[in-house]
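[User] Could I get a sequence and structure tokens?

[Assistant]
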Amino acid sequence: MYYVIRTQYLENYGVFDEPAQPRWKAKGGDTYLLYQAVLEDPRRMINNFIAEECVKHSPGGCTYPIGTTVEIPSDSAYAHDWCADNINEPWFKFVKVTSVNTWEIESVEINPDLFYEVDESKSRRALSYKVHELTEKADG
């Protein structure tokens, strides 16, 4: 099963003001593609991952998940295409989940020149192929 989780990062521009005046500005975020070959309590795994990797707070900035977690069945013939549709950026983080509490995160970037071509099908194919390649590597 695949799970897509998006995050938002906010930076506090007012942290150094005297007195401190919070001024938050959105500065991007990450897209995580979690891959779990064996379904082992997926809700608990997702909650643990979000708590460990997607929720961070400091006076200078914070990160939190946005939207809903997208579930994509890995046994579908279109799974890699569906993942590509939900990533929709030239970079993402592939997460190989080994248990409900452990995972390996790999940062992935597709060639931006290819990704931003006029023909969107090329970028979708590149993402789909990369997801397929990462999945095969994760499966051993």
